[in-house]
Design a protein that fits this description.
alpha/beta; Rossmann fold; DNA polymerase, domain 1; 2 domains; globular
Amino acid sequence: MFRNIIFDLGGVLLDLDFDTPLKEFQRLNRNEPFEDLREFIHHPLFTGFETGALQPEEFRERLRQLLKNPEIEDETLDHAWCSMLARVPATKVAILQELASRFRLYLYSNTNEIHIVRFKRDFAIEHGMEWETLFETAFYSHEIRDRKPNISGYRKVLELAGLNASETLFVDDLEVNIRAASEAGLKVLHYIPGQDLAKVIRQFDGIGM
C-alpha cells in the first residue's frame, strides 16, 4: 500500500502537441532540416535548459544559433517553443482533486522556465485556479537542477518531500523514466497517453476510486 503519488506532467496530465512546434521550428530554421521534434529537442541545449544550466536569455540566443537565424525575436521563439503545450483536461483536474482527499500528491516534471511560466498562466486562465494548489509540492527539473531519468533526480525529490520510496507511486508516460524510478525504489505506473487516467489508476493495485 502507498500513501503518496508523484505525477509526471507532459503526456500524463498535460496533453502535448509535437506537430505544431515542429512546423514552427521548420519555418524558422535556416540550418539542416529535421523531421522529428523529439529528435531535435534531444540536443544538449534543451537538456541544459531543463536542468537550470541556462537562463532563458542564453537559451534563446543559443536556439537562434542552432537554427542559424539570428533575427528571430524573443516572442516568436517563445511562441514556437511553447506551442507543444496543449492543455490539462478538466477531467484530469477532477481526478487530482479526488485523489488529493486520500493521497499526498506531488509533481515531478522535466521542464524549463519558459514552458512552466506559460503553462501556469494558461492553466489559471482556463481553469480559474492555480496549478500548484493541486499538489503538496511541484518539483521542476530546472529548479532542482536534475532531471529524469537520472536516479539522483528521483532521490532528490524523495528527500526534499520527505517521502519513503516504498510508500510512493510514480506515474509517467515514458518507459525509460519508469524503469529509473523503479530502480530508485518507487512503485511505478506506466501511463500510455490517450488512456483513461481514472480507469488506469482505479485498476492499479491498492487504489480505488
